[in-house]
């Protein structure tokens, strides 16, 4: 339904994941029967949770641990892991600096050039330890480093920016990345994002994307929505892009997974994103809270160190448990941030969805009071959902 903003400007209502709820159907099933697996190209994972390509979230060790747990972690190839051979003193500086000095420190640290040899080294370190070498580049970085990523043996590459599209206008003398050509020439799956609309998702699929990242600005450390005023609430964005996936599949027979990226903190958030049409989710701050995370209890966005317009901040997320506690349990907290896979399986059982595809078909209702209704004591005592 069209809403009039003013003369000559109409709009529509969009919904965030906090505004919706999932409705149980006519059957239930034991959570152990829930199949949460998904695939991107030839890569199949049992846990539909991907760790974000952020320097406080994924390093070589975390990428290997996540692979062992049936998940996947994406390494930022334009972050500190490829600018510094020894990242420990760099991470210590980021964790210790005050709020007022943070942005300038990050800009200085990230001004160190990316080194080709470190790209190759990090990929090989992940592979040698039995992990899935999932890596991330910006479109500009893909043009510069794509060949070395393929030669080093990466398993999958994520091309990420605030907005990625096939129709990009560059200044004279600067050639933009041809996404279709890049996807065709790379010997590994190429995931493209981020986007929030049906039309752009469809164009990225036609360009050869192996999966689509959906989400602009909902991340815990991201400030793009405030800085740029750009974004679509995640429930609506995921549903729109999932519709493009389904239409593309009907037309071509090719299924391109949708990955909800950003704004996802609890198991309930994951369940609602999948119910809106996602095949998997990408999360940052929940993984940054793991003992094994490189961020020392801090989390910051990929665009935070921009030399001209930082779009992110550093947040203190603390350390609440091991990556195993957070991902597959057993949960040691009561707020939905531990045993994320268990939450998804239990929700699927409650909703009678045996597969991710069936979970995408459950009924969704608008429920702005879902997280507050009846929670007076939790809120007052800052327990459970009141934290």
Summarize it:
This protein has 387 residues and is an alpha/beta fold. It has helices spanning 60-68, 88-96, 99-109, 116-128, 139-152, 179-185, 198-206, 224-228, 234-252, 267-275, 285-288, 323-328, 340-351, 356-359, 376-381, and strands spanning 3-6, 9-11, 20-23, 38-40, 43-45, 49-51, 72-76, 134-137, 156-160, 190-195, 211-214, 258-261, 280-283, 298-300, 314-316, 363-366.
Q: Assign a percent range to the helix content.
A: 25-40%
Shape: globular
Beta content comes to: 15-25%
Widest β-sheet, arrangement of strands:
6-7-8-9-10-11-12-13
Largest sheet: 8 strands, parallel, barrel
What is the fourth-level CATH superfamily? Answer: Aldolase class I
For the residues shown, what is the average pLDDT?
92
Please tell me about this protein's structure.
The chain has 387 residues and is an alpha/beta fold. It has one domain (42-169, 176-323): TIM Barrel, CATH 3.20.20.70. It contains 15 helices and 16 strands. It has an 8-stranded parallel beta barrel, surrounded by 5 helices. The two termini are 35 Å apart. The model has no long low-confidence stretch (mean pLDDT 92).
